[in-house]
Amino acid sequence: MLSSNFSGLQNETGTDEAGRGCLAGPVTAAAIILPEDFKLELLNDSKQLSEKVRENLRPLIQEKAICYHIIHIEPEIIDEINILNASIKAMQECIKNLNPTPDYIIVDGNRFKPVDNIPHSCIIKGDSKYLSIAAASVLAKTYRDDYMNMIHEEYPMYNWKKNKGYPTTEHREAIRKYGITKYHRKSFRLLPNQLEIDFGL
Q: How many angstroms separate the most distant Cα atoms in the chain?
């Protein structure tokens, strides 16, 4: 059973990201403030849910939320500031776009940097403990999946529709065969032997 509140403050936001371990595509974050009486059957950490359940939950979460925001941080920025900083930046930007401004932030994971002096707590496995983080994880994951499905049409040979940019054997084989795209993260270990990659875009 997920808890509805960590801080006891009314406008508490939960935030989470998706796509941190991918070789291609953005890292996507969501932040959300839920009403006190929020209840939604099946809501859990997005990784525990099937794609169909996540897609069904998204409109229900959005409809019931007080406010929410989603942000994609593109591979160029990930390469420039590293994936940890890009993940934190994505979550921070989401929080800055919330209206009302949250009184407290709960973050999935163990690393974060303050936003506008709003107090925060990092919660390991927070997406399986608190409703707002679970809701943010579903939004981040579904919006990122939509993005990967869209760019799959441009580069179908990498099968992003299926692997969503994660380092599957099939994805690595496609990189070996076709090289990389503008959507790949050049700072990541794209192949076990980096010397084999042609960076000529």
A: 55
Closest CA to 60 of 143, 141, 135: 135
- Name the binding residues for a divalent metal cation: 16-17, 108
Cα 26 versus chain centre, distance: 9
Q: Is the pLDDT confidence value at 195 over 50? A: no
% of the chain beyond a pLDDT of 70: 96
In a domain, 124, yes or no: yes
For 78, the domain range is 12-148
Residues 181 and 140 in one domain: no
Strand order of the β-sheet with 120-123 is: 67-73, 27-33, 12-18, 104-108, 120-123
Is the domain of 27 the same as that of 59?
yes
C-alpha span between 10 and 103 (Å, rounded): 7
pLDDT tens-digit map of 87-111 = 999 999 999 999 999 999 999 999 9
Q: Which two tokens stand for residue 127?
A: 């997406």
Could you give the angle at which helices 131-154 and 51-64 cross, rounded to 10 degrees? 120
Q: Give the residue ranges of the annotated binding site.
A: 16-17, 108
- What is the predicted pLDDT for the residue at 3? 93
| Between 120 and 188, residue with greater pLDDT | 120
Identify any residues that bridge with 17 across adjacent strands, giving them in sequence order: 29
What DSSP designation does 186 have?
Answer: T
pLDDT attached to residue 161: 97
